[in-house]
């Protein structure tokens, strides 16, 4: 059966990038007929030190954002990663399948470790093994993510294929793990920084003006858009006219994604106009979509016990789906039956 899995790290606040690149897509997939499993990946978060109290809060906040964006605990399994020990167990097995050479090619490790790679945690280095385990633990077939996760997903596919080769019994388990299909789609798969059109919008950017947070209020959203970097040209007639204009392309893409319209359609309305006209229109659209989400997140955060109940219920269901698959995996590797 087709099955969707994806995860979001509880590090800092969620941004418009997380929303358009991921969580909005998670919501759309709920009606697709595929089973949907969405995870707050708290174990991934600690690959870089997190203040413990802040991690607890951020885990609930990401869950609140899931719910506020329309994820429904009746239609999807929503849970936090550390509540299902199978993720860690399968990550170990897969880290014995993955080759060091594969990990050495991961650009996210290089970016996050910075200059002093020797001082990065071993967990940051083996992060892709845990991510492959997240997906394969459920034999997920489809993984909706933003463009920045593409390389990790290719590694997850390679890992599944190598496990199948290493442990596939003749006539049996040759395709034990399905190769997970990345779903990198939608109008914008990479939302860029509001300050620099060559950098992705990120919750870890030191400048809060570079991003729109799902928790920003209407005035803050409007101010960030007003101050967003642009160029002096009016908007072009066609999408090709945006090719060499990363900031303009980003803002038009955000407008299109938030309104569910095509880029060509948006340009049809605004071609020939400058940003002094476009920015207020974009701010209005952004506030109308994001303000209700922010308000709902705040409301949900007033009742952390209810959030924890949603996560506990999801974790129980996630364990029920994954445990038989994990037991089969153990058997293939040659571990004694439990
Ligand atoms: P994370 O927590 O950095 O981001 C969560 C999701 O948001 C997407 N995203 C963006 N999309 C478009 N534009 C942006 N500026 C932008 N910023 C973030 C990310 O692509 C992602 O889809 N390694 C993952 C979490 C993870 C995972 C998994 C994902 C762990 N296990 C298994 C899928 C399947 C991460 O760090 O995402």
UniProtKB/TrEMBL annotation:
DNA-binding recorded as keyword: no
Binding site for L-tryptophan: 134
Catalytic activity: tRNA(Trp) + L-tryptophan + ATP = L-tryptophyl-tRNA(Trp) + AMP + diphosphate + H(+)
Keyword terms, alphabetized: Aminoacyl-tRNA synthetase, ATP-binding, Cytoplasm, Ligase, Nucleotide-binding, Protein biosynthesis
Residue sites binding ATP per the record: 9-11, 17-18, 146-148, 191, 200-204
Matching PROSITE patterns: AA_TRNA_LIGASE_I (PS00178)
EC assignment: 6.1.1.2
Motif, 'KMSKS' region: chain positions: 200-204
Pfam families (alphabetical): tRNA-synt_1b
InterPro entries found in the cross-reference section: aa-tRNA-synth_I_CS, aa-tRNA-synth_Ic, Rossmann-like_a/b/a_fold, Trp-tRNA-ligase, Trp-tRNA-ligase_bac-type, Trp-tRNA_synthetase
Protein name as it appears in the record: Tryptophan--tRNA ligase
Gene that encodes the chain: trpS
